[in-house]
Design goal:
The protein is α/β, with parallel strands linked by helices and 221 residues long. Helix content is 29%, strand content 28%. α4 packs parallel to α5. It binds adenosine-5'-triphosphate (ATP).
């Protein structure tokens, strides 16, 4: 299967006088799960928004398969994004959004018959608990047609058993997609990621294991 490549470089972002991102480079190919760790406020969400194209920065170059893509969300089957606070509107019906986001009929059935979702198929999104709603939102993106998925805190508020299920779906779907994922449940990110990065002082560091996270001051010794 053809590999697709998402590359991001030269990202510079300030909010007023405050420097948040300086000269970030990141690459994600289909088949990769790139985990981005970092302390609160280090700029993880801002970075994902810039990659998606919903936040403009002073400098950025986002390329898909070597083609400059400033608004990756406009690309057909390009990039999908889970913001921290979700994206489904509360009045939408669960069954309807599944059919809207997921085109493959087998995948629609897979989600509709999932044990967390099936009893809510006729319900509206607002009737879902926060964790179930997040589970559904992640599943919709993982089973969408897009080549890349950006996940901002997909595990927060989700119960351990649903996290395990998401792990399984992530691993399965990442065979054909590139995933960039960030969460404060760092052990999950360390477990699931094929490449691990740490965002610190506006820069991206490659991380090879827990020792690097201690050395960089992200974790206590
Ligand atoms: N619209 C904004 N205006 C001014 N400052 C902002 C704005 N959005 C974010 N910031 C600041 O930019 C920095 C990075 O924010 P961002 O939300 O990207 O961090 P984060 O790593 O995702 O944080 P968290 O892990 O807490 O979600 C923070 O210091 C934040 O206060």
């Amino acid at each position: 299967m053809k590999k697709h490549k998402l590359e991001v470089d030269s990202i510079v972002l300030h909010y007023g006088q405050k420097s948040v991102l300086s000269d970030i480079y990141l690459k994600c190919e289909t088949g990769d799960i790139v985990g981005v760790l970092g302390r609160n406020g280090c700029g993880k969400s801002s970075l994902l928004k810039i990659i998606f194209g919903s936040l403009r920065s002073e400098h950025s170059s986002v390329r898909i398969n070597h083609r400059y893509t400033p608004c990756s969300f406009r690309e057909t089957n390009g990039v999908q994004y889970l913001p921290q606070n979700g994206y489904l509107t509360s009045a939408s019906k669960v069954e309807k959004v599944i059919k809207l986001f997921v085109l493959n009929k087998d995948h629609q059935q897979l989600i509709l018959s999932d044990r967390n979702i099936k009893s809510f198929r006729s319900a509206r999104v607002k009737e879902l608990s926060t964790g179930t709603r997040k589970f559904l939102e992640v599943m919709l993106l993982l089973y969408s047609e897009s080549k890349f998925v950006l996940l901002d805190e997909p595990f927060s508020g989700v119960s351990p058993i649903m996290i395990e299920q998401l792990f399984m779906h992530l691993k399965h779907q990442a065979k054909n997609k590139g995933v960039i994922i960030t969460d404060h449940l760092y052990e999950h990110i360390v477990d699931i990621s094929s490449k691990l990065m740490l965002l610190k002082d506006g820069r991206i560091l490659n991380i090879n294991g827990k020792e690097d996270l201690v050395e960089s001051g992200y974790l206590m010794d």
